[in-house]
Design a protein that fits this description.
The complex is a heterotrimer of chains A (287), B (266) and C (104).
Chain A: H1 3-9, H2 18-25, E1 32-34, E2 59-66, E3 69-76, H3 87-105, E4 111-115, H4 126-143, E5 149-153, H5 162-169, E6 172-175, H6 186-193, H7 203-210, H8 212-217, E7 223-224, H9 229-242, H10 253-261, H11 271-277
Parallel strand pairs in A: 3-4, 4-5, 5-6, 6-7
Antiparallel strand pairs in A: 1-2, 2-3
Helix pairs in contact in A: 3-4, 4-5
Chain B: H1 6-14, E1 28-35, E2 38-45, H2 63-79, E3 88-95, H3 102-106, H4 109-125, E4 130-139, H5 140-145, E5 152-156, E6 162-164, H6 168-174, H7 179-188, H8 196-200, E7 207-209, H9 219-237, H10 253-265
Parallel strand pairs in B: 2-3, 3-4, 4-5, 4-6, 5-7
Antiparallel strand pairs in B: 1-2
Helix pairs in contact in B: 2-4, 6-7
Chain C: E1 2-9, E2 18-21, E3 28-34, E4 39-46, H1 52-65, E5 71-77, H2 82-97
Parallel strand pairs in C: 4-5
Antiparallel strand pairs in C: 1-4, 2-3, 3-5
The chains are: A alpha/beta (287), B alpha/beta (266), C alpha+beta (104).
């Protein structure tokens, strides 16, 4: 079966590759890829280290429309180098967001959707990956002034490292049960802080703290959806219709500082503790 | 691990008579001062051995630091909202890493660091000159949260100044290499190196400065840094509020080429 | 990592181009583009060193059965088995026949 035929039959979003995901979300016939794979804009740094490159460096930039409105989608391919951000892929995302912001300054209401499947910086391009992520973050904050910036973390990779900070800057975050969202990957925490602190092989434990459902009930994301392409599509449309949020999550300094101040220093932490601490429902809440 | 005092040393050096703000986590040093005649808020993240979050006691940027930075920078934006002259924000950067821990992940440290990035980026967009002064380590998520949104980055030339995305042991583990292999590669691949010389070749720094005594700065050292900060403020005033100034180096030609192609095809 | 080049006699050049697969573990990415009439050129970048004979055999078997179209094929291989390579190549050729599978 061809990829196209599979796309038509399947409703799972997670099973789709980055290009198929972007195509599935844009209005039919409106998908147009920028710097597509045949341009072979590939990592200049991986071959120097004996690592095979991918023709699109693991990032698909597609322009098109959603409900007729100009939209750019940046989709990360999680299966290439763990969705890591190198110089080229990072510049594709940052550059696309910069141009979307520029569009808005010129009266064109271009919006952006980020499909995040990433472990963060590509360590083989370390400082250039980090720099690109800083530029992605800068561009999100800029574009967010004009239009909602929506990020979807579907899985299976999740969203980690500097890109989790980028996710935290978005106007709306949509996750599935398969999503994980956290700053530090489990292996890194185990390496830096020890296995008693964080056992990277204890999957239920990791999921209980950083999985999509927990992030939703603690108000750290906006929507929790099943792995279904049409439902994710509908949720994106809903978020766009809501317009910009009154106050982005990353601006709720006072609320979070207040909550962190209520935590007993020696209190052990688990999923329930965080749910109680960040319980939604009060007027200052993050939801 | 010896705690670095460089952040605090340079915070004190650049704000000799100012009174640090109260009501902040002890790991945040913040004060309002002047650079020459220019109003400035100087901000440092420093070690605090009593930090209520044990994983953030060595100068790491953790939950309180991320949200605290966001709050204090946001206050500057609000205070200067109706002023023509926006105070400069000077981030003194000596951050060994973000905080690695169970509590941190559980409580959403990514969101706390986003709080800091958000405020620094909005300050820059609002017209505040934002300058990052690297005096020690500038590592990974900690650097993203504290300094990387600056219009201009300045680093002191010193072997103790290091910039990277991850500590060596962890980077080796994640890339399935030994630390020796990693160091051998870093010697030939500029973005993988930890030292200032290689970092400077990426074009991300606006200026590098030599000082006589980085951990006990002389009056001449302090004056040189202060003058450089003032030049940076003037340079920012003449330029844009974005990060475009970082794209010029030959080691970033792919970053430029991608943007050129995107613009053509947009 | 090594780069290998292969050539085989081919038929006419098709219109359009196709991309299948990706550089994930045990997989490969295949880019198929129209080539010079009568000639199939393959450029293989693979993470597995010393595999030239294996690729040669695989291509020979495939293209002996049926004359391939004239294409320039680029392969980025991340340790795919011969079975996966064959599957991806067949998938790519099939997509080329389905007009509009990958157009800009």
């Amino acid at each position: 079966m061809t990829d196209t035929a599979r796309l038509l039959q399947s409703r799972s979003f997670i099973e789709l590759g980055a290009r198929q995901r972007a195509r599935a979300l844009l209005d039919q016939g409106s998908f147009r890829e920028l710097i597509g794979p045949f341009e072979r804009m590939m990592s200049p740094w991986l071959p120097k280290q004996g690592i095979v490159t991918q023709a699109d460096d693991g990032v698909v930039i597609a322009k098109g429309t959603i409900e007729g409105q100009p939209t750019v989608i940046a989709a990360i391919e999680g299966s290439f180098q763990g969705g890591s951000m190198g110089e080229v892929g990072g510049a594709k995302i940052a550059g696309a967001l910069e141009l979307a912001a520029e569009d808005n300054r010129n009266g064109i209401p271009t919006r952006a959707v980020l499909l995040l499947e990433t472990g963060g910086v590509r360590l083989q391009e370390a400082n250039l990956g980090l720099a690109a992520i800083a530029e992605i973050q800068a561009a999100i904050v800029d574009l967010r002034q004009y239009q909602p910036v929506i990020a979807v973390i579907a899985g299976p990779v999740g969203c980690f490292g500097g890109m989790s900070i980028a996710a935290g800057l978005c106007s709306y975050l949509i996750v599935t049960q398969e999503a994980r969202l956290g700053l530090n990957g489990p292996q890194v925490i185990e390496q830096e802080a020890g296995i008693e602190e964080y056992d990277s092989r204890d999957r239920p434990f990791i999921w209980s703290l950083t999985g999509g459902e927990q992030r939703h009930v603690t108000g750290l994301v906006d929507a929790y959806v099943p792995d279904d392409t049409e439902t994710i599509h509908a949720q994106i449309r809903t978020c766009f219709r809501q317009g910009k949020p009154a106050l982005e999550r990353s601006r709720r300094y006072a609320w979070f500082l207040d909550r962190l101040g209520r935590l007993e220093p020696e209190q052990p932490i688990d999923a329930v503790t965080v749910r109680d601490l960040y319980a939604a429902g009060d007027e200052g809440g993050v939801k | 691990m010896t705690l670095s005092t460089r952040g605090l040393i340079w915070f004190n050096a650049l704000s000799p008579n100012a009174k640090p703000f109260e009501g902040l986590p002890a790991s945040l040093k913040v004060c309002d001062t002047t650079l020459g005649s220019l109003p400035a808020r100087v901000i440092a993240v420093v070690p605090d051995e009593q930090n209520p979050f044990p994983r953030a006691r060595c100068g790491e940027v953790g939950l309180l630091e991320g949200w605290g930075l966001g709050r204090i920078i946001n206050e500057a934006i609000e205070a200067d909202r109706d002023h023509d002259t926006k105070r400069a924000l000077v981030a003194i950067i000596d951050v060994p890493s973000q905080a690695y821990g169970r509590r941190e992940e559980a409580l959403g440290i990514h969101q706390a660091l986003a709080g800091a990035v958000d405020a620094y980026a909005r300050a820059r967009l609002a017209g505040h000159p934002v300058i990052g002064l690297i005096v020690g380590k500038a590592m990974s998520g900690a650097f993203l949260a504290h300094g990387y949104q600056a219009n201009r980055l300045i680093a002191l030339r010193d072997p103790g100044v290091e910039v990277h995305a991850m500590g060596k042991a962890s980077a080796a583990r994640i890339t399935l290499r030994s630390v020796d292999e990693l160091e051998a590669l870093a010697a030939n691949i500029p973005p993988m190196a930890y030292d200032l010389h290689n970092y400077a070749s990426l074009g991300l720094l606006w200026e590098t400065l030599s000082v006589e005594r980085i951990e006990r700065p002389t009056e001449g050292d302090i004056n040189r840094v202060s003058e450089c900060l003032q030049q940076a403020v003037a340079d920012i005033a003449a330029g844009s509020h974005d990060l475009r100034g970082r794209l010029d180096a030959s080691n970033r030609s792919a970053s430029r080429q991608v943007r050129e192609k995107l613009l053509e095809q947009w | 990592m090594e780069t290998l080049k292969f050539e085989f006699p081919a038929g006419q050049s098709p219109r359009g181009r196709a991309l299948v697969g990706g550089v994930g573990s045990g997989d490969l990415e295949v880019l198929l583009e129209p080539g010079e009439a009568g000639m199939l050129r393959l450029n293989v970048v693979t993470s597995v060193n010393g595999s030239a004979a294996r690729w040669q055999n695989l291509f020979e078997r495939m293209f002996r059965e049926q004359t391939p179209p004239a294409l320039n094929i680029e392969i980025h291989d991340f340790g795919a088995t011969p079975g996966v390579v064959r599957l991806r190549l067949e998938q790519g050729l099939e997509e080329l026949q389905l007009e509009g599978a990958f157009h800009d």
